[in-house]
Amino acid sequence: MSKITVSKPYLDVKERKAVMEVLKSGMLAQGPKVAELEKRFAEKVGTKYCVALNSGTAALHAGLYGLGIGSGDEVITTPFTFVASANPAIMLGAKPIFVDVDEKTFNIDPTKIEEKITSKTKAILPIHLYGLCCDMDLINAIAKKHNLVVLEDACQSHNAKYKDKFAGNLGNAGAFSLYATKNMMSGEGGLLTTNSEEVMERAKRFRQHGMQQSGDYAYVDLGYNYRLTDVLASIALVQLDRLDKFTQKRQKNAKYLLKNLKGIKGLILPVVEEGHEPCWHQFTIRITSEFPMNRDTFVAKLKEQEIFPGIYYPKPLHLHPQFQKLGYKEGDFPVSEKLAKEVVSLPVHPLLKKEDLIKVVSTIKRLGE
Ligand SMILES: *Cc1c(COP(=O)(O)O)cnc(C)c1O
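That is the input. Now the predicted structure with pyridoxal-5'-phosphate docked in place:
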């Protein structure tokens, strides 16, 4: 019996060949492959520019820096996410201001944003969680009204669409991750997309020790070594070629799960509203109190059957010591706290076989009886 896991990397002879070519070229650091990846990813997303970095975290950090976020500023985001959505603001001396999520979408609740805006608020950082875009029309309207910038955390949403535009082209800039479990990956890596020449130039400077782009060793500001390597860019380029096909497979798998898991008492399926085309980084269901067993027992039962789901995320950020230092406490974000106890991400990746999906469905149906 083979294990059905929540994610599975796909790499074959094409990636190996691409890496070997870079090794043979002798140029392993940031070079022509990184430049090619930047060009092709910007074309894919539909933005004028893309800056490659060595992680999604670095892309968020460089994105906030590029947008001019600094000491004392406030950045609005949610606590129901991976830690890397919130830490980059802190790295710049700014403060993440959490807003609770909408339980239907798992994304920031736009109706709760305005009450958190102060004279210090500079940016909104919406996270397209699990590959479903946020309600960007509402978020952009709020940003415009209050003169704020918008950085999309698109780390889980390569190829996700909102009203016919791709994630990463829905705000002032978008940050993607190329971490091993993402829909398009190179092990580690990040990409920042933007239509702003200024943001692009600032991010490039930030990537290379704050050095002026003309390259004459003039250090105009603090920067880091956030460069991606050509070795990794060559893998990401092959993965970019595969992205459409893999996204379609995820969408097909999600459709199957949505159809076949309908009507189970106490099990809430993901909701896709009009205008959204998710890329299904995760397929996340909720196991509520009406289900015959609690979430943790449900997960244990699936594991007994060699099905290994994921829990993203078991605890919202505001309940961790790192964010309690900022004054957050239990009860501050009740929707996030409830979801953290209910969510289970089922396997939806493109390498699943029909028999895997059938087994996942039949096992869950049996547990729900
Ligand atoms: C993966 C991820 C990141 C960070 O990406 P890394 O490449 O691991 O640094 C940030 N935000 C979200 C929502 C992610 O899923």
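The chain has eleven helices and 15 strands.
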